[in-house]
Specification:
By secondary structure, the chain is α/β, with parallel strands linked by helices. It has two domains: 175 residues, TIM Barrel, CATH 3.20.20; 121 residues, Lyase, Ornithine Decarboxylase, Chain A, domain 1, CATH 2.40.37. Helix content is 29%, strand content 23%. α9 packs parallel to α10. It starts with a helix and ends in a 16-residue tail after the last helix.
């Protein structure tokens, strides 16, 4: 959460919490504007495009605002394709980068005219069997040990489920060529949440090596996503202008100018969202616990990833004595914690806590275990007004799929 976001949100937060109730995710449109324009400026003059990763934030209300900056959308499922089309995306505004892909999913992406990224040889086989001719087709490459960066939740070299093995790439590319796509590209993504440019430049180097080795006309290179943000206050932000300069230098040295695509979600939107939650209980176990009215059902990262961190501040907590606490939700899981042994200003029941950096990969990863329902989403406009763009789930929503057409299969046993 930037200082600018805090200065815009703090004065209105009590009124927002009173009017809408807690918990809620709230997104700062001014901060989004600043990051989106900075991203465009860094790569200005280079043939490139950002395809925002819909998995990070699938709310069409937010996607429509991202589209205003010329961004396309990276989708990996039919629901994400639907979200992109609700936001007004068509054709090659959409990049379909799926994994373990079905025929039906491919058919939907092809019907929309999306760029198809084949994550596996079986995708190419399916496209051939369908008699498809994608306008744009990319192969996602698994580089083997050459791509190990050690900062990834994508899996190590042997266990990762993503990409065409580099030793099979030439054969798969030859198959793909029979589809006669209008444009052909290569895709690679080495890691996630990375704060230094070297892994992304390694990605570009590895892809350029494959362009030369394959001897094919490659129209675009997709460097994937994975640019991180400084979740911890002491971390340094990713130097995007320096990275953009290095990309230009690499392309100049190689003597080629393919279009460069990105699939960033975290970098674009994460810093511009916070989860606002209210203290329900002060509890003394073997540790001091601060119980709040949200939990990992609304933000799973701290419970899912062992080293994940989200900064937490207490609204109007300045000047209070500090204490060491766990900040916990209400799920029947001991990892339902936003913070473990964190030094925070002393809280009382009713205080508002802000869990920072939830603009992406927060509500999109939410779930309803224990019947704990997903919270509402709000946006903070630059003029200080606040708008709801998703209501909180209700118990009626939780049971909605129990209402279904009567259908029973009688199996005759032999």
């Amino acid at each position: 959460m930037s200082a600018g976001f805090a200065s815009r949100l703090d004065p209105v937060l009590p009124a927002v919490a009173e009017h809408f109730g807690t918990p809620f995710h709230i997104y700062d449109l001014q901060g989004l504007h600043e990051t989106a324009t900075a991203f465009q400026d860094a790569f200005r003059g280079l043939a490139s495009r950002e395809y925002f990763a819909v998995k990070g934030q699938p709310n069409p209300a937010m996607l429509r605002r991202l589209r205003e900056y010329g961004f396309g959308f990276d989708c990996s499922s039919p629901a994400e394709l639907a979200a992109a089309t609700m936001a007004g995306a068509t054709g090659e505004d959409i990049c379909f980068t799926s994994n373990n892909t079905s025929l039906g999913e491919l058919a939907e992406a092809l019907e929309l005219g999306a760029i198809i990224t084949a994550d596996d040889e079986t995708v190419v086989d399916k496209l051939i069997a369908m008699g498809a001719r994608p306008r744009s087709l990319a192969l996602r490459v698994h580089p083997g040990t050459a791509g190990a960066v050690g900062e990834s939740y994508l899996g190590d070299t042997e266990s990762a489920k993503f990409g065409v093995r580099v030793d099979r790439l030439a054969a798969v590319a030859a198959k793909a060529a029979t589809l006669r796509p209008h444009r052909f590209g290569l895709h690679m993504m080495l890691g996630s949440g990375i704060l230094r440019p070297e892994p992304f430049l390694l990605t570009l180097d590895l892809l350029l090596e494959q362009v030369a080795a394959l001897g094919l006309d490659v129209d675009f290179l997709n460097l994937g996503g994975g640019i991180g943000i400084p979740y911890r206050p002491q971390e340094q932000a990713f130097d995007l202008p320096a990275f953009a300069r290095a990309v230009r230098e690499r392309l100049d040295a190689a003597g080629v100018r393919p279009r460069i695509l990105f699939e960033c979600g975290r970098y674009i939107l994460t810093p511009h969202g916070v989860l606002v939650t209210r203290v329900l209980n002060r509890m003394s176990k073997w540790r001091e616990m601060v119980g709040v009215d949200s939990g990992m059902n609304a933000l799973i990262r701290p419970g899912m990833y062992p080293h994940a961190y989200h900064h937490i501040t207490v609204h109007e907590g300045q000047g209070r004595p500090l204490e060491t606490v766990d900040v916990v939700g209400s799920l029947c899981e001991n990892n339902d914690k936003f913070a473990i042994q964190r030094r925070l200003p002393r809280t009382a029941e009713g205080d508002l806590l802000l869990v920072h950096d939830t603009g992406a990969h927060a509500l999109s990863m939410a779930f309803t275990y224990n019947g704990r329902l997903r919270p509402q989403e709000l946006i903070l406009h630059p003029d200080g007004t606040v708008e709801r763009i998703r209501r909180a789930e209700t118990i009626e929503d939780y049971f909605a799929t129990l209402t279904c057409d009567a259908d029973r299969l009688e199996v005759v046993r032999q």
